[in-house]
Amino acid sequence: MPKQTVALLFGGRSSEHSISCATAGGVLSAIDRDKYDVIPIGITRDGAFTLQPDDAARFALSSTLPGVDDNGTRIHWPESALSREITVTDAAGQTTSLGEVDVAFPILHGPFGEDGTVQGLLELAGIPYVGAGVLASAVGMDKHFTKSVLQHAGIAVAPWETVTVRRWATDRAGVETAADALGWPVFVKPARAGSSVGVTRVASPAGLADALEVGFAEDSKVLIEAALVGREVECGVLGGLDGAAPRVSLAGEIVVTGRDFYDFDAKYLDAPGIDLVCPAPLSEAELAEMQDLAARAFEAIGGAGLARVDFFLTASGFVINEVNTMPGFTPISMFPKCWMASGLSYPQLIDELITLGLNTVR
Question: CA-CA distances (angstroms) from residue 34 to 37, 144, 246, 349?
């Protein structure tokens, strides 16, 4: 069987640029080279599409966060949807063909990648791709709209208040009153960011203004969210093939012992005070309920391909925190860990996602 060509998109303009690059390193090291040829397309922090080395070690996560260097190359997408041929112009100005792409794998996190923008580009170019479509990507990226959709579907979410820059400037007293009503502590987080970037735990009203400024540095819209007491549990979702129902992995648990919350340093820089336990110790009934809620959430936003659904297991039951349509995908991330515990190896998971991308009807 001839090999299929995968265009791997990573990096990007968001604050999660380095995490996307680390994900690329994981995929480049594990993808089945007997089945796939890979075109590594790195997007610089300025948004230039470049051809990068097919070198997993170049993008490995270490004490120095990886990034996409602008090497002067420029990727050109097909001129119409009648062709899937990608070309590249090198730093000397010479343009050559990279051949036709069978499927794109946009392992991009955050704005300008996980939010439907790149998905729209790929649809305009007529290139099949892995993951959620334009609408589901946009909904999943925006925590306000994720919560609104899930709430409409009858799924419990943490109480929240959405604050824009304009509202904070014109109705500060109203925002402070709304935060008081949620109870202290609260979490302040950008509506459209991930990897805990810009997130602050606020213990009292005195810290609210500073936390909002941190959030507004990432986004013009910020959520103030009630802090929930409960276990932090997550599971992975894969789309169903040929019209089948979504599949949900075993659950993983984030055990926080020495930090205020599961922040960026704990997720990616091996900071102490966090243990990732997979599979999580849940009863059969709890796991079944969690898996059902995850599948319902995935379908409520119109998900495709993959997602990670994050929960709090509180005294009154499961509450969904977020739906991540392109979750962290490094070999140590929770999404692959949950699927490995469920019987899919990292290379098999990559293969499964590519198959879903090739077969998803947009």
Answer: 8, 43, 28, 16
